[in-house]
Amino acid sequence: MTLTEKTIFDKDQGKLEILFSSEKIQKRIIELGKEITKEFEGCEELVIICVLKGSVLFTADLVRHIDLPVTMEFVRLASYGDAEKSSGKVKPVDLTLPDLCGKNVVVIEDIVDTGLTAKFFLDYLKYQHKTAKIKFAALLDKACTRVHPIDIDYTGFEIDDKFVVGYGLDYAGHYRNLPYIGYFPKND
Ligand code: 5GP
Description:
The protein is of the alpha/beta class. Helices cover about 20% and strands about 30% of the residues. It has three helices and eleven strands; from the N terminus they run βββαβαβββαββββ. It binds guanosine-5'-monophosphate. Guanosine-5'-monophosphate binds near residues 80 and 169.
């Protein structure tokens, strides 16, 4: 039985309901890849910054649909710990980046909730690096829980206020490897 076919049952959270199938995610990613390719057409080097850990699968799939010369960087920020709500503080675990002066950059996030993490990192880039252009892609947008206004240039899907897991997103470190995105209805 593949991971897609298997019913996921968490001992604390109950049964996982699928919100976005793997097919639906991949279809949307192809569209986003085309949009990004068009936006940066003719660009000599596009720097993709993957915000770890949650964006790792999204980034890996998205870059394969960006038809441009790409380099990849990785930063690691934390705000949730093991909880289902943001701690309200961003912990920059690793912000190591090369000089991005004059570069075109796309920042890739898994999900924007309050917007704190995205605001922190986009502000950091703006003030610390004199980039040519910064665009921001997020697979999921929980627009209804936004506290810090953020412009998302490329959104995969907008979702309600649900705690989602899968496709890079975890609950206490688990479920990142699921090829789809789901939620535990018990928490609603
Ligand atoms: P924000 O700073 O926008 O409140 O939260 C952003 C970060 O919180 C995301 O990058 C992600 O790591 C985590 N997060 C927010 N909502 C969810 C969710 O529904 N599920 C999971 N697994 N993580 C979330």
